[in-house]
From TrEMBL:
Annotated protein name in UniProt: Amidohydrolase-related domain-containing protein
Organism: Aquilegia coerulea
Record-annotated Amidohydrolase-related domain positions: 162-362
Pfam families, per database record: Amidohydro_1
GO cellular component: cytoplasm
Biological classification of the source: Eukaryota, Viridiplantae, Streptophyta, Embryophyta, Tracheophyta
MF term (GO), any: allantoinase activity
GO BP, one annotated term: purine nucleobase catabolic process
Amino acid sequence: MYMHILMILEEPNGKDFPLGLKQQPPVEAAEEKIYVDVGFWGGLVPENALNVSALDSLLKAGVLGLKSFMCPSGINDFPMTNSSHIKEGLHVLAKYKRPLLVHAEMQLDSEGYPKENDDINDARLYSTYLRTRPPSMEEAAIRELLEVTKHTRANGSAEGSHLHIVHLSDSRASLKLLKEAKSRGDSITVETCPHYLAFSAEEIQDGDTRFKCSPPIRDAANRENLWGALMEGQIDMLSSDHSPTIPELKLFGEGNFLKAWGGISSLQYVLPVTWSYGKKYGITLNQLASWWSERPAKLAGQELKGAIVSGNHADIVVWEPNAEFELDENHTAYHKNPSISAYMGTRLSGKVLATFVRGNLVYKEGEHAPAACGVPILAK
């Protein structure tokens, strides 16, 4: 089972940084320390977006593609890009036939929603955080992106490049725009995440900052629309948007949604979460494999991954779809800080029994491989 993971190195304090902005080569840092095959994505930032040689060096080093933010990322070393930067990045990527991943949120000056640094008395209310990142931010970013993705069409100036919208939350105007762009021939895909399919804003308690992420988890009606779009094929694939941190940065004592670290720790749970919440919509194992393996592998240019066929890498997960279990940080969670995950305490079905990477057994019934056997994946 190949899962699409945006690989950005994580520093001990919970901060992270994009490949190309620090001195230590990520490939060297990962060698002999990874238990699965790992691919790296380069960061597209204003500093290198207009520098063809800088982007060439990243792509020649083997990154699977590039990633950029259209809003502040929260990381000083990863500043936001605009459509001009993205256009230039796509033209360079066209030569390598690799994708650009974009966090599509753009703040509009005309909107009077509160800012994350404002002194607001009700910062413990999830509804306050929702107002800081309304659906219009996603819609505005996607509208601007579609002025650029027209160049990715057949015979366009950036033909060969591809734009991928990461962790879409807005199931209304944004999805409609993307559907229209695909029908015009733009090379564009979109993903959403399990937390948008599992949770709704109405269920989030005041001060429970485990649920803070960006874009935010929206209302129950939006969740239903996301499921419909996924089942109909408007949403192409799923990803975890796994964002680990340390408990202190989640500000559990304050419960301040405006200042707490944004991100949901989820990587271990994505298969059972998707399966458990998707059964009511009639999802199949084939769909699960497509959303989590086949399509992400294709996006990342991994021809030998994503499907169980002769000649492919033997990356296989063994699981029992009907087995039920409760997520417990003491027994069933293997993250470094499991208490920060929004999934703790939920009852799920679909228990992973074993995992193989290139035919090597790396996990079986609570036990992990004694030695790392994963390898860095480099694009060619």
